[in-house]
Amino acid sequence: MQGLKMVLNMIDLTTLEGKDTPGKVKQMCYKAQHLHDSYPDLPTVAAVCVYPSMVGVARKELKGNIVKIASVSTAFPSGQAPMSVKLEDTRFAVSEGADEIDMVISRGKFLAGEYNFVFDEIAAIKEACGNARLKVILETGELSTLDSVRRASDIAIHAGADFIKTSTGKIQPAATMQVTYTMLMAIRDHYDRTGIMVGMKPAGGISTSKLALHNLVMVKEVLGEKWLSNEWFRFGASSLANDVLMQIMKTETGLYQSPDYFSMD
Amino acid sequence: MAKKTTNKSKEKGWEYAPSLESIGHIDLKESYDLFIDGKWVKPSSGKYFETINPANEKVLAKVAHANEEDVDRAVKAARKAYDTVWSKMPASERAKYIFRIARLMQERARELSVIETLDAGKSIRESRDIDVPLACNHFFYYAGWADKLEYAFPNRNFEPIGVAGQIIPWNFPLLMAAWKIAPALAAGNTVVLKPAETTPLTALKLAEIIELSGLPAGVVNIVTGFGDTGAAIVEHPEVNKVAFTGSTAVGKHIQRAVAGTDKKVTLELGGKSSNIIFEDAPIDQAVEGIVNGIFFNQGHVCCAGSRLFVQESVADLVVRKLKQRMDSLYVGDPLDKNTDIGAINSKEQLEVINKYIKIGIEEGAEMYQPNCEIPTKGYFCKPTLFSNVAQSNVIAQEEIFGPVLTIQTFRTVDEVIQKANNSPYGLAAGVWTDKGSRIFNLTSKLRAGVVWANTYNKFDPASPFGGYKESGFGREGGLHGLRAYVKLK
């Protein structure tokens, strides 16, 4: 139960579709604050995650709430845009009120071996973030080997990422346990060397409580208790929350309830 | 059930709830007789001994103590079954019986793994995921060979040896029974098997399965007892082949006992295997391999990677990461699925291990043990690491058979080959490097029966296993494993 509630509190409730509208985002923001009102004292999710154009809407909905607003940026999901556009994208999201920026790295450049480019880009976006925390999406499904995942993690961490994140959710495979484990070890090695903590966000494909708990166990075993809070660990997911709620109610009542009893927003 | 805790819980830490495998489904009798000639018979001495659960020191069952007379009955039954049924049966029919045993074991896999954990102290994760499935797979694998032996020994005539006397150890009780029985039956031999005195139960469950399978009476006989029972098997004049897995001291004794007879022998004995980490190795992966190499099955593994060699340039890093990893190991109730390291098999073995730990400290080696809690009841030992060790240290030379690792550093490839080979044993070795050519260089120069590259303790029925030097001779598993059970003409 403790684990399930922790999972709930670590979710970045996400909608990243071409067809997103202010209406859809408003609904999701309400859900973020009222996960399942028939069960008292549930935590909220950690954040909502939207496109930059929707940050303003979310800001209005979540005014004064502890739920943070994360915005994807840098021509998400492909990252195929000039630097100036990416910087502008980021500055716009921050000015609209984003607390967190989820940027994508230039996978094309990375695979072409232009690691300095990737590094510089992350560092520049970090600067554009100001006070917003930066999550760096590696899109591990396109990097293909764990060696590349590790190298990209190290580059992102050294360039100033506050979080490293597996995937956009648009490419499969996304957050597999092997990939997350590899990235957690990069974080651990950096911490051992410097004492600086970096956060981790697996995203895409974690839609069940069981898988989420597997991930939490991995975090505890590799990084320790310090990372077990939404300041340092997040799940990027759209459908995970309801499964966790369902499991919480099952644990509470001993009975499984129909999905119809859990609101879908 | 967590109360109204929301975000507070994090500060208290997140503990896992115990995840105990249930034991309600197993079927254990209060006492077990000897399985001879297809029947359960009382020992002629009337003597029984107790087998206990090393995790809580409670008695699990009473087991018959076979003496010379009982062994004689078992060998005679095996001889009769060999002469009248088993050697005459078409090989394809033999295969069906072996296959049936495998299937029945699979059906009872859960029960077998729980009993294995209770009797041996090994973690349920290991008995469930490794011991029992591998044991089944050995029967499946050799069932396939039974009617294809002419392809195993092309252009040669061959015949079974006869009655095989088999003595197995306590570290992998059911798996070792499978390693021994399956190839013997496939090649057309009959069997008298003696399980170890601390872990007889899964072999007796296997006897029940064999009974259920309808295997002709006397083809497999299982007699329980101590060293005297084993000696009676080895010395019995009608035993044609002796297969032993266990300590080098007993192995030497067997060698002497069969001298001057025409008994065939295979011995799988002790080890002090080297696990070698080069600077270009994937370090995190290697650390997992080191842990698996020495802490798997509480270190009760003849091929355990108990001598770790780390290239000096990465030694600090490897040791730091290894300690970190050891801190996250769970030592405790073997039935708990969270447990990584279960109970030491017996009080005697725990004393042996503690003796060596004391020697290590006295020798001036630097010891590290994680700050974990271990149960007060039962036989438990923390994972232990000794650094600052030389080849001359006793703890680097003698087999400890427990979760105790010694670390030495090296500088060059030649140096580590020399050091790794500088041991009376030669069972296994591990090599960790990203460089393929280096792997091949080492595999050809290391004097060890098995060399793993970038992995450790990896077993498969198709892969032969066995030692150099004082680690024994003969191979078990794979095509090579059949060779020990036929006479080639």
Structure description:
The complex is a heterodimer of chains A (265) and B (489). Chain A is of the alpha/beta class and 265 residues long. Chain A is built from eleven helices and eight strands. Chain A has helices at 2-9, 22-33, 55-61, 83-96, 107-111, 115-129, 140-143, 146-158, 177-194, 209-222, 240-253; strands at 11-14, 47-50, 68-72, 100-104, 133-137, 163-165, 199-201, 235-237. An eight-stranded parallel beta sheet of chain A has the order 7-6-5-4-3-2-1-8. Chain A starts with a helix and ends in a 12-residue tail after the last helix. Chain B is of the alpha/beta class. Chain B has two domains: 31-269 and 471-488, Aldehyde Dehydrogenase, Chain A, domain 1 (3-Layer(aba) Sandwich), CATH 3.40.605.10; 274-460, 3-Layer(aba) Sandwich (Aldehyde Dehydrogenase, Chain A, domain 2), CATH 3.40.309.10. Chain B contains 17 helices and 22 strands. Chain B has helices spanning 9-12, 68-86, 91-107, 109-120, 124-145, 149-152, 173-186, 201-213, 227-235, 248-258, 283-295, 312-327, 347-362, 394-397, 413-421, 436-445, 478-483, and strands at 31-32, 34-36, 39-41, 48-53, 58-64, 158-160, 163-167, 190-194, 220-222, 241-245, 264-268, 274-277, 307-311, 366-368, 384-387, 404-410, 425-426, 428-432, 450-453, 468-469, 472-473, 486-488. In chain B, helix 3 (91-107) packs across helix 8. Chain B is globular and about 65 Å long. At the A-B interface, helix 1 and helix 10 of A face loops of B.
- Round the mean pLDDT of chain B to the nearest integer and report it: 96
How does CATH name the architecture of chain A? Alpha-Beta Barrel
Unreliable spans of chain A: none
Structural class label of chain B: alpha/beta
